[in-house]
Amino acid sequence: MKRTTFALVLSLFVAAAAFAQTAAQPAAAPRPKTIVDLVREAIAQNDFREAEHLARANMREIGSTPLAIEAFSWLGRGAVAAKNYDAAMTYAARAYEMVEEQLKTRQLDAESHLPIALGAAIEVQALALAGQGKRSEAIMTLQREIEHFKGTSIIMRLNKNMNLLSLEGQPAFPIESQEWLGPKTSLAELKGKPVVLFLWAHWCGDCKKQGPILDALVNKYRGSGITVIAPTQRFGYVEKRKPAGPAEELAYIERVRDQFYPWMKTVSAPVSDDLYLKYGVSTTPTYVMIDRDGKVSTYLPGQPTSEQLEPLIQKIVATTSSR
C-alpha cells in the first residue's frame, strides 16, 4: 500500500514538477500568468491559504468559468499531497459539482479546462479515499466514473488511477497489436522471464531522459533474462505538432526511436492505441514491471530516479516462475 500511495502521489505531481521546471527557464516572451498559474505557484510554496483566496476571488470576479474551475481543482491536489484528506474530498466534490453544472450546457471535451478539472476531482477523491485506508471505496468510485465517462478524453487518466489501485498482483494485459516496430512478441512467449514495459511517446522529453536510466539498469541485470517491451501509440502529429497521417507518423516514431533510443532498435515496440488505453498512459513514461509469472509487480507512471527504479527491477528479477 505504501508503494501504491507513492506511485499515486508521484503521478499526480509529475505535471506540477514539469510546470516548475518550465517556469524556472528564461522565456523570450513570457505569456501573462493565468489564475491556474497563480494557484499552482501558491501551492508549490505551501501557501494553501493564498491559493484558496486566489481561486475563490477569481470566481467571485468572473464566475465559475472552465479556467476558474481548473484553478479550483488544484486546491484538492494540494490538500491530498499534504495528506489533508478531508479537505481534499471537500475541494474535489465542489470541483466536480461545478463541472457538472457546466456540462448541462456543453460537452466535456468542447474545451480543455473542464476535462482537466474533472479528471483532477475524480483522481483526488480516489487518492483521498486510498489515503484513508478506504481502497475498496476508491476502486468503486473509479469504476463508476469510468463507466460514466467512457469515450471522453479523461478515460485514460481514470484507467491510470484504477491501475494504480488494483493492477499490482494481477495478470498483465496481453501485448496485442496490429503494428510493431522491432520484433513481435507476447507475454506468453516471455513467461518465466522478468519483463519491463516502457510506455513512451515520440513527443515526450521525460521519456528521452528516462531512456538511458532504463538502458543502464537492464544491462546491469541482463543475465537474469530481463526483457523490455516499449509500447507506444500515434497522436496524429509529428514534430512541432504538425498534423500527420498514419504512415508519416509511424515513420517519424521510428526516427525518434533511432535517434533518442538507439538501444530500443532491437526491442519489441507495439504501436497500439488500445494497449495505451488499457494501461492508462496519461502520464509518460509509464513503467509496468511484470514478474516471471506474468503478473504485475509494479505499475508506476512518472519519472523515477535510478535509485527508485532499481529495487523495482530487482524484485521481478528475484522472483521464481511457478511454471
Would you kindly provide a written description of the structure presented here, covering whatever features stand out?
The longest helix has 23 residues, at 2-24. 56% of the residues lie in helices and 7% in strands. The chain is an alpha+beta fold and 323 residues long. The model is unreliable at 13-25 (pLDDT under 50). 40% of the residues are buried. It is built from 13 helices and six strands. Helix 2 packs parallel to helix 4 (66-81), helix 4 (66-81) packs parallel to helix 6 and helix 5 packs antiparallel against helix 6 (113-131).
SSE arrangement:
Elements: H1 2-24, H2 35-44, H3 48-62, H4 66-81, H5 85-102, H6 113-131, H7 135-148, H8 155-166, E1 180-181, H9 187-190, E2 195-199, H10 205-220, E3 227-229, H11 246-260, E4 269-270, H12 273-278, E5 286-290, E6 296-301, H13 306-318
Parallel strand pairs: 2-3
Antiparallel strand pairs: 1-4, 2-5, 5-6
Helix pairs in contact: 1-6, 2-3, 2-4, 3-4, 4-5, 4-6, 5-6, 6-7, 6-8, 7-8, 10-13
Question: What's the short story on this structure?
Answer:
The protein has 323 residues and is α+β, with helices and mostly antiparallel strands. 56% of the residues lie in helices and 7% in strands.
